Amino acid sequence: MVADPHDVRCWRFRVRRILVAVLALVATVGAGPNAFASPPAPITAFYQPPVPLPPGAPGDVIRSEPSHLALSVPGGSGTFPANATRIMYRSTGATGLPNAVTGTVLDPSLPWRGPGVRPLVSFAIGTHGQGDQCAPSKLFNQVIQYNPPLDLMTEYEVVFIDLLLAQGIGVVVTDYDGLGTPAVHSYLNSAALAHAVIDAARAAQRVGGTSIPAHGPVAFWGYSEGGGAAAAAGEYAASYGPDLDVRGTFAGAAASPDLIAQAAKFDGTILSGFNGYLLNGLRAVYPQAAPVIDGFLNPAGRQLLAAAANQCAIETSLTYGFRRSSDMTVDHRSFAAHLADDPVTGSIVKSLHIGDRKPNAPVLLSTASADDIVPAEPIRATAAQWCGQGATVELLDLPTPPILPGTAIVHVIDSPLSIFGRSLAWLNESFDGVPARSTC
């Protein structure tokens, strides 16, 4: 039976109204613009990169300071589940120029339970937004980041990070290029994401004052945008991070090996506004793309980009959810169609494809046909590409049924399903030296 399109639109409208009502309630009861916020002045100073950058290599630590975890408990040897250090480190942008990226090193209070020295996971976050207030290294210091009326964010990845810390695995969480620091976050840019994730691991091993060894085993881990970042790091590691002892990569619902397919998938869903992050990133990183993008946007499209640049994911979803990009272009064609059809942006997007380089360690990929946010076929195609290059790849294809398509419900629930169902055990097996299985 085919659902009535009118019924589907009604469901989406109702879901959006409910979400708006929840945020309105938060705005009513909030204590003020800086409720739950840490002092802004020192953090603002920390996030300003020195000009020029000091000489050094990718992964070198530019500066560091202790970071208080809002969700932690003081203990005899520090805090549980980890002692945190905020870092700024050297990395490389998408076009090959050096840049400064911030992040957080989490040194577990519990011992590593496996063989050998303590391993490290370079944890790649899912989409947080494009405003600097959305950076995880800032959110770790707060329970809730809130500014009226709709700027609300919390560090939702902390549940999965704490799972790793509870096993004695060291964790470093990059903020990504341009998130927290003054530059524009280069959203879903595989080159910039790969460099940031790889260099975060290097920085965590170099910062000192932790129990994370300088040359210990490393894995990359991420879901959604983080899945794309982890997948990119996995395939860039051989050329960009050959000094790292990479044991494996978990890339869940990787967004996305094919940016055109990803832009089309976002369109009309609750996360439709995330295409604003994508276009902002392309404009900022590639000057030749700016006139192309500016040329197809109408006033509504320009308004999306201006707003998204300073928003976190929740606010973008509430203000631009379920919008069609065809309503934001001068000729009513979608953003995806414009990016694909123009030779300038088409060439840029093609260069960011994930799957063209062989990972130097086993990879676990997860996807689902019913994922209403990240398309499954590009992930399956990447698995096939890597298999064809001789990589060890396990593809976890989840059988989740469709649930209110466009609301991101399936995309969200597949995260714990993949993590508890397979990836956590797979990660430990990788660090324990168990041969990885392959579905190639």
Key structural traits:
440 residues, alpha/beta, 434 Repressor (Amino-terminal Domain), 9-stranded mixed sheet, two-stranded antiparallel ribbon, globular, disordered N terminus, triacylglycerol lipase activity, Lipase, Lipase_secreted, AB_hydrolase_fold
Q: What gross morphology would you assign? A: globular
> What's the helix count?
15
CATH structural architecture of the domain at 259-350:
Orthogonal Bundle
Flag low-confidence runs: 1-42
Number of strand elements: 13
H and E string:
HHEEEEEEHEEHEHEHEHHHHHHHEHEH
Biggest pleated sheet: 9 strands, mixed
The N- to C-terminal Cα distance equals: 35 Å
The helix/strand class is alpha/beta
Order of strands side by side in the largest beta sheet? Answer: 1-4-5-9-6-10-11-12-13
Per the CATH scheme, the topology name of the domain at 259-350 is 434 Repressor (Amino-terminal Domain)
Round the mean pLDDT to the nearest integer and report it. 91
Name of the CATH class of the domain at 259-350: Mainly Alpha
GO biological process, one term: lipid catabolic process
Pfam family, one: LIP
GO molecular function: triacylglycerol lipase activity
Protein name: Lipase
